Amino acid sequence: MPTMNDREKRQSIIDACLRMNALGINQGTSGNISLRHGDGMLITPTSTPYEAMLPEQIVYMRLDGSRDPAHRPSSEWRFHRDILQARRDVNAVVHAHPPYSTMLAIMGLEIPPVHYMIACAGGDTIRCAPYATFGTQELSQHAVRALEDRLACLLAHHGMIAIGPSLSKAMWLAVEVETLARQYHGCLQIGTPPLLSKAEIENVRARMAGYGHAEK
Question: What is the set of active-site residues?
Answer without folding.
Answer: 76
